[in-house]
Amino acid sequence: MPDLQKLYDAVLNGDQKTSVAITREALDAGTDPMVLITEYMVPAMDEVGRLFECEDYFVPELLLSARAMKGSLELIRPLLAARGDEPVGRVVIGTVKGDLHDIGKNLVGSMLEGGGFEVIDLGADVSAERFIDAVQAKNANIVCLSALLTVTMPSMRTTIEAMKAAGVREKVKIMVGGAPVTSQFAEEIGADGYSDNASSAVALARRLRAEATA
Amino acid sequence: MTSAAASSRQRVLDALNHRQPDRVPVDFGSTSVTGIHVSVVAGLRRHYGLEQRPVKVHEPGQMLGLVDDDLRDAMGIDTVSIMPARTSYGFLNENWKPWVLNGLEVLVADGFRTTTDTNGDTLLYPQGDLTAAPSGRMPAGGFFFDVIVRQNDFDPERLDPSDNCEEFRPMSEADLDVLERSVAGVQNSGRAIVAGFGGTGFGDIARVPGPGLKAPRGIRDVTEWYVSTRSRRDYIHQVFQRQCEVALGNLERIRQRVGNGVDAAYICGTDFGTQSSAFCSVATLRELWVPYYREINNWVHANTTWKCFKHSCGSVERFFETFIDAGFDIINPVQCSAAGMEPAMLKSKYGSRLVFWGGGIDTQQTLPFGSPAEVREQALRRLEIFAPGGGFVFNTVHNIQAGTPVENVVAMLDAVKEFHHA
Question: Shortest Cα distance from B416 to chain A (angstroms)?
Answer without folding.
Answer: 24
